[in-house]
Amino acid sequence: MPEALKCPSCSAPLDYPPGGATSMRCPYCNCTVVIPAAAPSTPEVQNLQVEDLSAALGPMVGKALDMAKVAQLLRDGKKIEAIKVYRQTYSVGLESAKTAVENIAAGKPADHGAGPGPHYTPVAPVNPGANFFRLGCGLAFTILLVGGIILTSVMRSLHHSFSSNPIIQTPANVPNISGPDISTPPPPPSYADMVLEFGSEGIGAGQFKDSRSVAVDGNGNIYVGEYSDGRVQVFDSQGKFVSAWAIKKQSMMNLLADRRGNVYVVTPGEITKYDGATGMPQTQLDNSFNDNPEDYMDACLALNGDIYALAGNADIVDIGSDGHIKSDVNESEKVGEDVSFERIAIAGTGEIYAVDRTKGVFKFAADGRYINRFGGGGEDIATPRPGHLMSPNGIAIDGQGRVFVTDDGPAVQVFDSDGTFIDSFGGNEVAFGIAIDDKNAIFACFRNKYTVRKYQVTKH
């Protein structure tokens, strides 16, 4: 009486086919089953344990394909479905499956903390779901390849002899299956990389409480001003604390430094020149023009040594290098509407940029003629679009004419000289004062983090 016939893949009971057929299809898993011949089996053949090998490889391939499905679901944004598939595959709890899937999405090993799970070498992905999809497919193809090679070797060793157990039909030529290239190119560089960060919370040397202003002189010395207590700290080009001094009046609106190491501090209604190293006051700039007092709010330095200041709501005042006012232009008349400027910057070619925190950035020619505006501003939207300024805090122009504006996340937005948005950097944080040196390095105060950060542009 012939021995009971079972499918070696799913172990389902099978009936011998009529007519002496040498193979059949399993009605349960659809694999091809070879009917054992009457030839006597030998201990050598029995020790090959082909059925055990097939049964072991089947679950491995199944899990690999399930992991590829998890990756595909993540790629399609179906995180909940991915967690369900992972739970079914590895029989783990909801929290463990959730942790493993989140690790997969982040490009980390899928360690669910409840027994063995899939592991692979983490890759820094641009698109974690897409990269792990490639990894999952690569794993599936690799297991299929290894299983095929092992089964082929076993079949060749039989030399046409069969044991009393059926085996799965294997093609004579195993295809040369190779997994896809899972190497991931490095992520594209950000617009600007942070190359230096210094400071911490406190009132000691190198510590900040309310830093909102930063400036750099011709020797690379960095000056950081505190809005609330008028303290100025001096650092070398590497962010190492050098000295500190303070102004008598509080509410420091801004500070700027020239190439010779002089520092100009803006307080409400006044601009005072100090020796940057010692903090000794040098002179106070004119704050009256044609017998009209100027209410200074901000200032910037031009290449010719002049200082351009904002006074009142819309006046742009040109102060010569001798400290005397040369001109005063009311820009509301040029724009044709009421504006309230709080920040000012000047390009090397003489164009002037003034910031209205609710209406955006206004550009003027060197002679005060209104050119255009950009950045929007003041819109009540949950997710600001690129180039939209929520609440601009500072502005600076580099040697390429690019306009850098600090904002309430992203920290710094970049525009070309005509106001076309280019990019942003600094993360979803709040930046205040900003300064740019002769090498186009950008310095920004992160008041809420109690640090100053230096960035270098990486895209051109």
How would you describe this protein?
- With 460 residues, the chain is α+β, with helices and mostly antiparallel strands.
- It folds into 2 domains: 5-168, no CATH class; 192-457, Neuraminidase.
- Helix content is 20%, strand content 31%.
- It is built from 6 helices and 33 strands.
- The strands form 10 sheets. It has a 4-stranded antiparallel beta sheet with strand order 6-33-32-31, with no helix packed on it.
- Helix 2 (50-75) packs antiparallel against helix 3.
- Mean pLDDT is 79; it is low at 38-54, 119-135, 139-144, 149-155 and 157-172.
List keywords for this structure.
single chain; 460 residues; alpha+beta; Neuraminidase; 31% strand
Strand and helix map with partners:
Blueprint: E1 5-6, E2 13-14, E3 23-25, E4 32-34, H1 43-46, H2 50-75, H3 79-90, H4 94-105, H5 128-158, E5 167-168, E6 192-198, E7 200-201, E8 207-208, E9 211-216, E10 222-226, E11 231-235, E12 241-246, E13 254-257, E14 262-267, E15 270-275, E16 281-284, E17 288-289, E18 292-293, E19 296-301, E20 307-311, E21 315-319, E22 325-330, H6 331-335, E23 341-346, E24 352-356, E25 360-364, E26 370-374, E27 394-397, E28 403-406, E29 412-415, E30 421-425, E31 434-436, E32 442-446, E33 451-457
Parallel strand pairs: 7-8
Antiparallel strand pairs: 1-2, 3-4, 4-5, 6-33, 9-10, 10-11, 11-12, 13-14, 14-15, 15-16, 17-18, 19-20, 20-21, 21-22, 23-24, 24-25, 25-26, 27-28, 28-29, 29-30, 31-32, 32-33
